[in-house]
Amino acid sequence: MSSSSISENISLHSHKPRHFSKVLVISIVLLGLSVLASLILGSRLVTWDELTNAILHPGVDSYESSVVHKRISRTVFSLLCGAALGISGALMQAITRNPIADPSILGVNTGAALFVVCGIAFLHISTASQYIWLALAGAGLTAIFVFGVGSMGRGGPTPIKLILAGAATSAALSSLVSAIMIPRTNVMDQFRYWQVGSVGAASWDSISTFAPFLIVGVIVAIVTGPALNALALGDEAATGLGVRTGTLRLVAAVAGVILCGAVTALAGPIGFIGLLSTHIVRLILGADLRLIIPMSAVAGAIVLTLSDVIGRLIGSPGELEVGVVTAFIGAPILIILAMRSRVRSL
């Protein structure tokens, strides 16, 4: 059965909310405002004239122009990373039917970080492309391990078992990361800021390295959206609608791992973006993953970009890494969601 026929048979998820157009317009406005804030605000306030002059006259060599151009690449990078993490969170919540699943909560980010740190310490890697492949391997193996542990025992991979398995795995892998980094000064100096998550080192090279992985992950996520709607009805119902649940989970999980692994390799383990963005979208638009996936990308881009701006303002004249800001915001929200939902399945 095709994806289109699947989506026609699940009426629960096939109605576009009447207020979707308003939500889309508001999201675009917020996205534009977050971009403007990222370009203007920071340790040095950029005026409107300085911003327009730097954009309209890119060849002019001045301090103001260099600040604007650096912030442009940083803003683009934060938008792409936020979108990737938003989609990854939506996919992981869908395939696990867990309302509080997130790459950071399930330990996937930490697994990616461990492999990158091991590559730096033992293999002496130094390029973004090498970081990405190691991060993808670490993220994939961690996801398999967490799902395997969470599936043990009666009831299979229940939400609470997956969260506990992810939390325990993340704690263990974080200890390994620290154990590898602390005795090695060169590794610690190189990645002490990366370890908490930051978009401050963004460049057009890192963006071009990341873009292919983002494109692949987005395409797979959009294509699997209708079938993931059927999966939300339960495995038996999805199978009855012609969905191969095992294959679907595998493909969607690979897309989620690619997205969060690539982000982790270049920006560090930034947490809670997938959780925050997907929950915001689901509360407003409902459970249709054909809407949740693209709108989670927009919400994730907004949340990460604004978090980066907040970190710059709080830490001025330096900056507070965006991973610290998202953890500070996301941790209490996770507790509230867990208490309110009682970790129910989707």
Automatic annotation (TrEMBL):
GO biological process, one term: siderophore-iron import into cell
Alphabetic keyword roster: Cell membrane, Membrane, Transmembrane, Transmembrane helix, Transport
Gene Ontology cellular-component terms listed: plasma membrane
Pfam families recorded: FecCD
Localisation: Cell membrane
Alphabetical list of InterPro entries matching this protein: ABC_BtuC-like, ABC_transptr_permease_BtuC
Topology of this chain in the membrane: Multi-pass membrane protein
Residue stretches spanning the membrane: 20-41, 72-92, 104-125, 131-150, 162-182, 210-234, 246-271, 291-310, 322-339
A GO MF term: transmembrane transporter activity
Family from the record: Belongs to the binding-protein-dependent transport system permease family. FecCD subfamily.
Name this protein carries in UniProt: Iron complex transport system permease protein
Organism annotation: Paenibacillus phyllosphaerae
